[in-house]
């Protein structure tokens, strides 16, 4: 499957509210990362605090 098609179907960014240093998620909510690749490679996570 072409990469641009995968990007159109999956989110590439996420905003999560944070209070007192903890993410404000609901009882059954969580954050998960999944990969479309079969080989391991490096990832970069960018955190922006305003």
Task: Provide an overview of this structure.
The protein is largely without helices or strands and 50 residues long. It is 14% helix and 8% strand. The chain contains one helix and two strands; from the N terminus they run H-E-E. It has one helix at 3-9, and strands at residues 18-19, 22-23. Strands 1-2 form a two-stranded antiparallel ribbon. Strand 1 and strand 2 form a beta hairpin. It starts with a helix and ends in a 27-residue tail after the last strand. The mean pLDDT is 79.
- SSE order, as H and E? HEE
Roughly how much helix do the residues carry, as a percent range?
Answer: 10-25%
* Low-confidence residue ranges: none
Strand content range: 5-15%
The overall strand count is: 2
Mean pLDDT: 79
Structural class: little secondary structure
Number of helical segments with 4 or more residues: 1
**Rg of Cα set:** 14 Å
The assembly state of the depicted protein chains is: single chain
Main features:
1 helix, two-stranded antiparallel ribbon, 2 strands, little secondary structure, 50 residues, 14% helix, single chain
Quick rundown:
The protein has 50 residues and is largely without helices or strands. It contains one helix and two strands.
Write the layout of secondary structure elements.
Blueprint: H1 3-9, E1 18-19, E2 22-23
Antiparallel strand pairs: 1-2
């Amino acid at each position: 499957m072409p990469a641009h098609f995968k990007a159109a179907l999956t989110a590439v960014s996420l905003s999560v509210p944070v209070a007192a240093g903890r993410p404000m998620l609901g009882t059954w909510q969580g954050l998960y990362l999944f990969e479309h690749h079969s080989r391991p490679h490096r990832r970069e996570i960018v955190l922006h605090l305003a």
